[in-house]
Amino acid sequence: MKIRLAVALLGLATSLTVPTLAQQKETADQEIRQVADSLARKLDEAWNNNDAAAAAALYTEDGVHASIYQTSHGREAIEKSYAHDFQRWHPNNHIITVNRVTVAGNGVRATGRWSESHVSDIGNVRGSNAGYVTLVIVREGNTWKIRKSTFSENHDPFSTN
To answer: Could you give the C-alpha distances from 133 to 51, 66, 88, 100, in angstroms and in order?
Structure first.
């Protein structure tokens, strides 16, 4: 009789605990998703304003930015890379859409797509680019920062389409 009572109480405790844990995980997942979306929006804003300093400020001091043209290591190099790109391409309508967020160790991996339109100083060519993006996001003090960004394109970067 005592065993049946113990099993019943254990079953009751488990049935009450599991939904609570699931709700906590769902809330944490939503918060992490909001962090990723917020950083993506801030990066879009910096791109659309052609503001290299604002874009670089979103990265950790030892951050890495990898694009189809080059890889930059460190916040200072990232700012120089963005400044060079913004002077040459004048991107606007830059949009990052985060499709998936995964917690990995102490960080978060956000993956999705990006797109932009631009005007180039090379022959005043108007065009657009699009591709895939991965952001590895970590805490730096009380702030979330980008440790690594990878942007790849899914078509010819010199296309005018």
So the answer is: 19, 10, 21, 11
Using CA atoms, how far apart are residues 85 and 101, in angstroms rounded to an integer? 28
Summary mean pLDDT of the chain: 81
pLDDT digits (tens, 9 = 90+) for 29-81: 788 899 999 999 999 999 999 999 999 999 999 999 998 888 999 999 999 99
pLDDT over 50 at 90, yes or no: yes
Report the number of distinct structural domains present in the chain: 1
Q: Is residue 39 part of a domain?
A: yes
Phi and psi (nearest 5°) for 34?
-65, -40
In a domain, residue 82? The reply is yes
Torsion of Cα atoms, 21 then 18 then 104 then 151, to 10°: -80
Burial of 159 (0-12, 13-18, 19+ CB in 10 A): exposed
Picking from 85, 94, 81, the residue whose alpha carbon sits closest to that of residue 47 is 94
Confidence (pLDDT) at 121:
66
Residue 158 falls inside a structural domain: no
